Amino acid sequence: MKNYLEKFKQMVDELRVHPQIEITEFVINPPATEKEIKSASKKFKLTSDMLDFYKQANGLTLRWKLKDTQEDEEEPICGNIELLAVQDVFSDWEDNIYFDDDDEFKPLHPLDFFVNEACAALYLDDSDNPEVYYHYCGEEMYPLKMDFGKYLHALLKTRGFWYWQTAVADKYQKMHTTSPKHFKKSMPKLFPDFKLSEIL
What is the pLDDT of residue 33? Predict the structure, then answer.
């Protein structure tokens, strides 16, 4: 079993001692119950990485920011992680993510709702190991070329930096946003050990 929870706790401990960073929220949900896992498994056969994570924590929330961050900054230097509970990920997202059976976003099941308007979502086609997509709600989706386990790995490496997903998506499909440049410029300054190659 991969000890994802311990890795997240270690990452948060490192953030706590960072001289420029303030953690504003860190919540670990209790492990998923057998009933919750069985319910989700009726929709999709969970992968080993999914089972490892949800049996340790049925979702978690992390929010951090620079100690001198202004609330109205267009591109803030902060981090947001909102990993949803397994029963929520594999629930019906009609009228939230898609609105009819022909909607191209129907296969998307949000996994990490890191901001209100965007999320990382599993694309449930017929694969037994679905790919994670970046989704700007109701407007666009871009492949991240990673599965559930690789997404958690990337979360740990990026510390959930604001819109880091766009920097990965931009590698595979050019995006019309400044977020990838903001991430690539700001992340190494804050975390000198970070290498973009670790998540691509």
Answer: 98
Count Cβ atoms below 10 Å from residue 26 Cβ, excluding itself.
16
114-119's contacts with Cβ under 8 Å and 24+ in sequence apart are 114/80, 114/81, 114/82, 114/160, 114/162, 114/163, 114/165, 115/80, 115/162, 115/163, 118/163, 118/165
Query: Would you tell me the crossing angle of helices 179-190 and 164-172 to the nearest 10 degrees?
Result: 120
Q: Specify the residue for token string 């070329």.
A: 145
Q: What per-residue confidence (pLDDT) applies to 102?
A: 87
- The residue ranges of the chain whose pLDDT is under 70 are 69-73
Integer Cα distance of 93 and 103 in angstroms: 12
Q: Which amino acid is at 73?
A: E
Kindly state the tokens that stand for 56: 């340790």
Phi, psi of 152 (to 5 degrees): -65, -40
Strands (E), 29-77: 60-66
141: left (phi over 0), alpha (psi -120 to 50) or beta: beta
Token pair belonging to 98: 């898609």
